[in-house]
């Protein structure tokens, strides 16, 4: 992949990808090349999503190995809600206390896949929000096909939480309005680049205030349909400029403007330093 192919903005490395699953084993063999392509594409910093005990630990190791570029979160995705236990809670608290993570999560509810019983999902979600109130970390949330329950739980805790992002937003504009009313950030992925299932986002993202907009790839998932195709269809942080381009077009803003506000918001949200 050439630099031009990876970066429609031809920007200096200043973008922030707020959610990339670089602990996924598909990145084990070429992570250094992935990071080089990201930097060539203008992506200066990447928040590596932790979603289970193993990926939490791996995300933290990656962040320690690439200081200033990678940062880790720690949480339990609703798919794994049955794995929640006090030992995992203690490990997340410890990582927060030692400054090894920049956010609590990924956590939330997912009634689309239903890999875990709904009751287990709600229990794990509540427990993780309780940790977030203790640690004062920002919260990285997942919601799919579970808006009523998710919103009810989030409303209960919102006053005690710090910054909150509903990441990889794919729901309706009405759901987005509910989250914005709770002063949440909204994370947008390459879903917005998919004319088949993401068309509704082109209208919905217009209502996101500049100071609440964040951008992410959710790599290795959700490869933007507008981006150059890779042989294995794996998404990676170098594809973030295509999300920026789609957001700019939908919001009637320049790509430079969207790049600047999403990067500024991400650094404030996760307390990241300015790009080197």
Keywords:
276 residues, TIM Barrel, globular, alpha/beta, 8-stranded parallel beta sheet, disordered N terminus, 10 helices, 41% helix
Could you provide a short overview of the structure?
The protein contains ten helices and eight strands.
The assigned CATH architecture is Alpha-Beta Barrel
CATH superfamily: Metal-dependent hydrolases
The proportion of residues forming helix, as a percent range, comes to: 40-55%
Order of helices and strands: HEHEHEHEHEHEHEHEHH
What's the end-to-end separation, in Å? 24 Å
Indicate the proportion of strand residues.
5-15%
At the first level of CATH, what is the class? Alpha Beta
The shape, in one word, is globular
**Uncertain residue segments:** 1-11
Q: What is the number of domains?
A: 1
Mean pLDDT score, rounded?
94
Alpha plus pi helix count: 10
Structural class comes to alpha/beta
Number of strands: 8
- CATH topology, which one? TIM Barrel
Largest sheet: 8 strands, parallel
Integer-rounded radius of gyration: 17 Å
Main sheet: which strands, in order across?
1-2-3-4-5-6-7-8
């Amino acid at each position: 992949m050439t630099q031009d192919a990876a970066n429609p903005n031809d920007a200096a490395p200043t973008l922030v990808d707020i959610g990339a699953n670089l602990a996924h084993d598909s990145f084990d063999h070429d992570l250094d090349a992935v990071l080089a392509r990201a930097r060539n594409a203008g992506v200066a910093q990447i928040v590596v999503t932790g979603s289970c005990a193993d990926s939490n630990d791996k995300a933290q190791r990656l962040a320690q190995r690439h200081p200033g570029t990678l940062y880790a979160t720690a949480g339990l995705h609703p798919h794994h809600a049955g794995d929640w236990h006090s030992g995992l809670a203690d490990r997340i608290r410890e990582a927060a206390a030692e400054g090894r993570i920049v956010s609590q999560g990924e956590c939330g509810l997912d009634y689309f896949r239903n890999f875990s019983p709904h009751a287990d999902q709600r229990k794990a979600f509540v427990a993780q929000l309780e940790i977030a109130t203790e640690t004062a970390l920002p919260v990285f949330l997942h919601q799919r096909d579970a808006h009523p329950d998710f919103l009810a739980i989030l409303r209960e805790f919102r006053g005690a939480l710090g910054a909150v992002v509903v990441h990889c937003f794919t729901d309706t504009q009405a759901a987005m309005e509910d989250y914005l009313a709770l002063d949440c950030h909204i994370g947008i992925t390459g879903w917005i680049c998919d004319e088949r299932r993401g068309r509704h986002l082109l209208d919905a993202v217009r209502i996101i205030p500049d100071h609440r907009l964040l951008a992410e790839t959710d790599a290795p998932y959700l490869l933007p349909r507008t981006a150059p195709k890779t042989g294995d269809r794996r998404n990676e942080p170098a594809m973030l400029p295509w999300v920026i381009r789609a957001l700019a077009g939908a919001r009637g803003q320049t790509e430079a403007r969207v790049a600047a506000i999403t990067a500024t918001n991400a650094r404030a949200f996760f307390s990241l330093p300015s790009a080197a």
